[in-house]
Prior knowledge:
With 215 residues, this protein is of the alpha/beta class. It is 41% helix and 17% strand.
Amino acid sequence: MNENVKSKIKLAVLLLITALPVSLATLSFKSAIESGDVVATANKGNLILPPADISALAMRHEDGEPVFRNFEEEIASLGDEEYQIRPWLLLYVTGNDCAEACQERIHYMQQLHIALGKNIQRVRRYYLHTAATPISSEVTRLFQTEFPSMGVAFSEREVLEQNMREAGVDLSLASESYIVLIDPVGNVMMYYTDEHTAEDIMSDLETLLKYSSLG
Length: 215
């Protein structure tokens, strides 16, 4: 059996053991809401079906290196190593510098994360800056002192908006900010506007963590 066939078999197996449970969790979550079984979470986050891939967000470190690769690239890079499931990601996306409303929102995300208790390690928070101007030194210091466990990444606003538009989601980052939920295999599956409360996000997240054993 040649290496190409082995790689394809490995990819197929990993897709089954990782992507399938998360997909089932997503579909179960949607079905539960539609059937009324999950009354408390009905009409909270905006579900993205089919989900977009995490690569659509074009997340980069400050030096330009990608933060995440898509699932297939991640698998292809493996040698004899085991695939490591990522945590669920809560991503704050803005097209402007992080002013008062943004800082308040990020504080809510931090408190929400702490409130997860035993599930805290299953979720990671990110701030995604898509403005053309750099993050201000004041905001950089704030992140270092108040939110040191929150990852910081960068993207181009127009690229991100176009990619998400192709996935059926219209974002207006020039005037709005969003919180995006991403599953452990890189499916961008839900987003929240400024109208959603921290309780809305917590309710949806707790349900998804309950349905999925991954992350």
